[in-house]
Amino acid sequence: MQKSLHIDPGKCTGCMQCESACSLVNEGVVNPSKSRIKVFTFHDEGRFVPYTCTQCDEAWCMQACPVDAIVLNPLNGSKDVIDDICVGCKVCTIACPFGTINYNTSTGKVVKCDLCGGDPECVDACPTQAITYVDANATGLDKMRAWAAKTDNAAGA
């Protein structure tokens, strides 16, 4: 069963624990600027929205890489950057429509979420369950359909 990150921004308090955990596990330091998940703050509305790589099926980043340094991880479905192959050209950062691939100036390579090999630290660190790791089939269109069906049933009652 493939799993994916599910983000519920309504539960996010902006504590940034996900960013701290991610940077610690992946970079060895607690430094949110090195995190592969970011929390966008809407100050005027008082809301926070975590975002990271969605591991797209089409994976434009993977298709754009001129040296094939981004590969599909068959175990968890993540699109992983192979550091030994990456030349740091940043073409993938341009190809990603969501801006979730970043250039690491320390290494001269790009970094993106790899789902921590199938055990995402951001999920464990989130105290409100705003970030969960769920069956990939339970997200997206099927989830919206299920919600719509419940809404229609409730409205007709």
- In the CATH hierarchy, what is the architecture of the largest domain at level 2? 2-Layer Sandwich
Q: Major beta sheet, specifics?
A: 2 strands, antiparallel
> How large is the count of helical segments?
5
> In terms of per-residue confidence, which ranges show pLDDT below 50 for 5 or more consecutive residues?
none
- Say how many strands there are: 8
Please name the CATH topology of the largest domain. Answer: Alpha-Beta Plaits
Q: What percentage of residues falls in helices of 4 or more residues?
A: 25-40%
Terminal CA distance reads: 36 Å
Q: How do the SSEs run, as a string of H and E?
A: EHEEHEEHEEHEH
SS class: alpha+beta
Which terms summarize this structure?
single chain; 157 residues; alpha+beta; Alpha-Beta Plaits; 2 domains; two-stranded antiparallel sheet; 5 helices; 8 strands; globular
How would you describe the overall organization of this protein?
The protein has 157 residues and is of the alpha+beta class. The chain is globular, with a radius of gyration of 17 Å. It contains five helices and eight strands. The chain folds into two domains: 94 residues, Alpha-Beta Plaits (2-Layer Sandwich); 58 residues, 2-Layer Sandwich (Alpha-Beta Plaits), CATH 3.30.70.20. The mean pLDDT is 90.
